[in-house]
Design brief:
The protein is an alpha/beta fold. The protein is built from 13 helices and twelve strands. It folds into two domains: 137 residues, Rossmann fold (3-Layer(aba) Sandwich); 148 residues, Response regulator (Rossmann fold, 3-Layer(aba) Sandwich).
Length: 330
Amino acid sequence: MWCSAVGCLVTLILSLLAVPLATQAQPAGQMPRVGVLVPGVPPGEPGGWLDRFRQGLRDLGYVEGQTITLDVRWDENQRDRLLDLAAALVRLRVDLVVTGTSTAARVAKHATRTIPIVMAVSADPVGDGLVASLAQPGGNLTGLSIMPPELTGKRLELLSEAVPGLARVALLLVAGASRRDAILHAHAAAAHRLGVHLQPLEVRSPDAFAGAFQAAIQGQAQALIIEPSPLFATHQAQLAELALASRLPMMAADVGYAQAGGLMSYGPDYAALWGRAATYVDKILKGAKPAELPVEQPTTFKLVLNLKTAKALGITISPTFLFLADEVIR
């Protein structure tokens, strides 16, 4: 076969124009799929950590359902479900998994050593063996750490400043927590340094909350510290009510406890950590390797004081302490 010079030229131009169109088209099913493994239950109202994560993705140009798919799995406060949920995400062949706690990160790492994992919140990823180091994580995990050892001592110190003469403090934590020994050791060391007697109280479900507060009263505790946990986070209002009814000044890490009626909270902005996790997702989806992305630690911490609760408990907060607070609820 042959063609005229003009005809061959036209055919050649048309074939060249068709190539970019074919290569630029988005293949079906290639939209990034991100699994989210979250201990706890879905929040009853908007504005939580997951919403901040979604907002972080939107700020980076992602549109859920159009340019990215999120597959969120909650364990409904049943930790034995985490492994099955993580395995389900692996079977879905998600491009990346985002986890909400150290326990969830550990379970996700057990489920896959190849799919990238971003820890939105983790306690001590180096001590827990999740990463080799903060600067060079290695493996398939990276993300954010909340630095618990330093915060533990600071929370007890602030509680002692707010409650003069504090000698006995109850510590509420989840029985069988993966970091139980480390948690107890950190609190015991801080209590010893400050000359405070520590009374650990371990619970497995919300049904045991009331009994734990009764045990704190019987143990003559003068205040209560709530250890960070998804189990407690979903019952902040109940715990705040029990603390007030038991006349126990309560300290927690998440600002939600102070807003719900606890005496105070001190810690990083957990919602901001989830927002920051979106940047890790973006980098990894664009080709970055988790092993080479340093684990970040928060640089700012917020002290929130509920002055209304202080007055109800008969606690006089000094002007100096009020000055230290980043937010005062009146």
